[in-house]
Amino acid sequence: MATEEDVRRLALALPETTEKPSYGTPGFRVEDRLFLRLRTDAEGWLVVFVADQGEKEALLASAPDRFHTTPHYDGHASVLVDLDAVDVDELSELITDAWRARAPVRVRQRFEAERDGDV
């Protein structure tokens, strides 16, 4: 089970990430591009941006106990993640993928180079 503290720790560890309210809830941005936010109106749920609709549909089909959507998010490349149903390793992967989907190319390339030890 992952927590809001895990979300904050993992998100803020990524380059150029800041926390800034979004729709009245904690949001996380890479160079002011929102890539995830906590939902206080649905406690324990995290809105996570994904690369595209195909990835959204794949996540929803793969684990309906962990991933969900609502009509509000129809046509939007994001899913709702039940923090009670994911572990920290899966959460880390989801957050990093969301960050990659929204990060500017130069920031993402620098991150990948540092991660691969090319810097």
TrEMBL record:
SUPFAM superfamilies: YjbR-like
Native source organism of the sequence: Iamia majanohamensis
InterPro entries: YjbR-like_sf, YjbR/MT2646/Rv2570-like
Keywords: DNA-binding
Protein name: MmcQ/YjbR family DNA-binding protein
A single MF term (Gene Ontology): DNA binding
Keyword DNA-binding: yes
